[in-house]
């Protein structure tokens, strides 16, 4: 289910608590939840995923992103979360797109090259061309 961006991060659509042991077995050490609570009927709560992550020995961070866009606080929180983890991370949202976009924005914020970020996103099946101007702006700051 996860779409690998590189050795440090993969993104995925909504996961369920019962998926977490397999994610741990696959080598992930941390889960980042980019999905707001109650976005869709029947989605697991963040608390349910956090509990499953803890039970499996994984770290867990919530950085909810609505489909309306990204704030600098979210970009900074994602950069901090990614920078504090030693090992592969799985970030998820409804489809994986917001997680991929937020990863790219956070990585550009930390100095990542937009061309490389767009290429990595494309390699995982995500088109980052819509946020290319934001990647350029963040990388140039």
TrEMBL record:
<dbReference type="InterPro" id="IPR036873">
    <property type="entry name" value="Rhodanese-like_dom_sf"/>
</dbReference>
<dbReference type="InterPro" id="IPR029021">
    <property type="entry name" value="Prot-tyrosine_phosphatase-like"/>
</dbReference>
<protein>
    <submittedName>
        <fullName>Uncharacterized protein (TIGR01244 family)</fullName>
    </submittedName>
</protein>
<feature type="domain" description="Beta-lactamase hydrolase-like protein phosphatase-like">
    <location>
        <begin position="5"/>
        <end position="108"/>
    </location>
</feature>
<dbReference type="GO" id="GO:0016787">
    <property type="term" value="F:hydrolase activity"/>
</dbReference>
<dbReference type="InterPro" id="IPR005939">
    <property type="entry name" value="BLH_phosphatase-like"/>
</dbReference>
<dbReference type="Pfam" id="PF04273">
    <property type="entry name" value="BLH_phosphatase"/>
</dbReference>
